[in-house]
Every structure is written in C-alpha cells, then in structure tokens.
Amino acid sequence: MGYCLAVGEFDLIRRLAPYLDVAGGQLLVGHGDDAAVLQVGDRGLCVAVDVLVEGVHFRRDLSGWGDVGWKAVAVNVSDIAAMGAAPTAVVVGLSLPPDVGDVEVEAVYAGMREACDRWGALLVGGDTVAAPVLSLAVTVLGDVAPTAAVPRSGARPGDRVVVAGALGAAAAALVQVEAGAVPDDRLLAAHRRPRALPAAGRALAAHGARAMIDVSDGLGADLGHLCEASGVAVRLRADALPVADGVAGAAGDRLWAVVCGGGEDFALAAAVPAGAADAAAAAAADADGVPAAVVGEVVRRGAGAAVVLTLPNGGTMDLDGLGYDHRHGTGDHR
Which is the CATH superfamily of the domain at 160-331? Predict the structure, then answer.
C-alpha cells in the first residue's frame, strides 16, 4: 500500500542535504545535481540512480514488460546526458512481487538490454529481491572529462535557454487515459519508451553550456531547480517551445500546464552564452535527431517568480513549482 508524508520530494531532499557530501577533493559534483561526478584518474565518473515503482512511474495496463526495462535505463541515461557525459555501465536492483514470474523478468531484462544497446552502455548485473510491489532501482555510470561536466549551477544573466527534445507527449497521453479516451499511440510511446539524449547533452556541453538539467518532472519544476542552483531567473516564450506533435489536441485548454508541468519528457534544458545559443540548438538537434530551440533567456533573480512563461496571447504564466512530485505521486497541472 502506498502512502504520502507531509513533506514533498524536494523538501525532503533539502532536509537530507546536511548528511550528504558536497563537492571537494575527488568529488567534483555532489548533492543537488542530476548526477554525482567523481575524479577517477584523469577522468570524471558520473553516477546517477533512479527508482521506478509500479503505480507511480508505470502501469501494467499501459506498458509491456520490455517497456518497463527500457524506461528504467532511459531515465537514468537522461541524468547522465544532463551532465554532458556518455553512459558506460548499468546495474539494477529489481524488487519482485509474487505475481511476477520468470518470463516477465526476462522481458524486463530484454528491455534493459535494448536500451543499453541503444546508448552504448554495458548491462553488468545487480540484485533481485522479493517485495510487495514491483520496482527497479537502476544505477548508470557515465564518463566525462573532469572539467567538462555541466552542473545546474553555472547559468548567468544574459544566457539563452536552449531546450533539446520534444515536450508534453507522455503527459498528454496520460491526460487522455485519465479522461477515458484511447491514447494517441505517438504520445503513449513517449511514456512507455522515453528517449534519453546523451549525444545532444554532449553537443550542448561542447557549445559552452554553463548549466544543464534533464526535464523529467516538468520544464517549470526542473528549470526552477536550475534557477535555484544558479541564483537566477528564467523567462520563456511559449511559441518557441518544441511541443511534441499531437499534444495540443490531447491537452486542450490545459496545453501549457501539460507541456511545462506534465513531466516525463526527458528533454534537456541548458543555459548557453547568447552568442553560441543558435549553434548549440542546431548541434543538439543534429546529434540526436530531435527538435531543439532557443526558448528564452536567463535574467537576474528578483522578487517575483523564478520561471515565467510568456503566452502567445501576451499574457504570462508562473511556472514555479509546476511539475511532478514523486513523493506524493501527483503533478500540478494548474
């Protein structure tokens, strides 16, 4: 049985921060980023871990067993991508309820194998344990030059915001499911088998990205984390966002809440010096074959909202906190 506590996911993370090591010595990037980076010889070792839980991150009626395995790898490769790194190896902790048999487990591993092959990572093993609910705790290791890792904390006023990857598809599919409609196959595919963008991440890093984050919880929430880490604010243009095909029809009058707050996009959002932003967007698009665009600007942090979207009609929408909270299993689609 699931349960919720009074504090949300990010409040809990802040409360745990005093127990965690911060950057220093061999730890190049510590708590508060998409992945940790440790100095190992002359290289940077990236380490990212995510847990996928049935009923929170996937549903058996919407995803096949292979989809579950693929997604468990993809969401972690996306964190490695946000550091400008290349994925190298994957280990998994698999918790199995009594109704999941050997055939299903093999299908999960086949999905992980496909994802590892897609992104050039080794699937090297892990652990399996009996549990009351199905979950996968996947750790992905990555490689990056120690000075090339891109944290969340480097954005500066005047930088441009580049987004690589289409937005809104997975969330729009779930909107259709919640409404009792048959979901668009294009949209549902984004929920079942999300696409990580490590090549685009490396392209953005090569073009001078000063801060980067993967868009897993929603563009508003994730850019909010980047703004908090960098001490800045962001102003976005709705008409510049790379919205996935089919999202507008599925989302209806909730379009911008779904696009900016639905989560599970696994796009990349980066702060890039103004003079390099157009080239960075083009390189990211070419690297992974996805839409990419300059969608806004980094500004000085003031008293107002950190992340604001200018709508096509000239109005504005405050995106602070708009996103998915894994602690409570809900998204804020205002």
Answer: PurM-like C-terminal domain (3.90.650.10)
